[in-house]
Amino acid sequence: MAAIAVGWREWAALPELGLPRLRAKLDTGARSSALHVERQWRFVEAGAPWVGFALVARLHAGEVEAAAAIVDERMVTDSGGHRTSRVFVRTKLRLAGIEREIEMNLADRCGMRFPLLLGRTALADAFVVDPAGSFLHRRRRMRRPPETPRDV
Predict the structure, then answer these.
(1) By the 8 A CB rule, do 33 and 115 touch?
(2) pLDDT per residue as tens, the chain (152 positions)
(3) Which of UniProt's keywords are assigned here (predicted)?
(4) Neighbouring residues of 13: CB distance < 8 A, sequence distance ≥ 6
(5) How many angstroms separate the Cα of 142 from the Cα of each of 13, 14, 22, 139?
């Protein structure tokens, strides 16, 4: 399958987390992907560690809560050189008509313009980033059927 060209920013979805539309920055300089969360909490489900989290997505009314199994916890270095321990989860990403499973960490990205950062591991083997492109894959709008004349 040939790689699909995407812009440096796109609309993406994380359907398993109840997030049908998020502004995403595609960053080939970042290895891992990150989702902004307002808060997170841990719990155990069927003997396995899970994380619950909440975020405010601009396109949704109010706060969205979701949960996912923890797949890892590791140190991540941000763009400012600060190292922090972050929880990693796996979920489905829908981007440019392609759906694939990705791994991402949960982070406080409150000072960032994009709640979702997609790093090169999420993009590998499926997408190529056009740094001059922006929102190349806008969500298609449903066409309304033509109106029928009303009988008077």
Answers:
(1) no
(2) 689 999 999 999 999 999 998 999 999 999 999 999 999 999 999 999 999 999 886 655 678 899 999 999 999 998 888 899 999 999 999 999 999 999 999 998 877 889 999 999 999 999 999 999 999 987 554 444 445 444 43
(3) Hydrolase, Protease
(4) 19, 20, 21, 22, 93, 94, 95
(5) 18, 21, 19, 9
Superfamily of domain 4-35+71-130: Acid Proteases (2.40.70.10)
pTM: 0.85
Element (H, E) at 48: strand 48-56
Instruction: Give me 25's structure tokens.
Output: 């920055």
Q: How many residues does the chain have?
A: 152
Which stretch of DSSP H or E encloses residue 88?
A: strand 83-95
The domain ranges of the chain are: 4-35+71-130
**Cβ contact 75:83 at 8 Å:** yes
Q: How far apart are the first and last CA of the chain?
A: 55
Residue found by looking up tokens 């056009």 in the block = 130
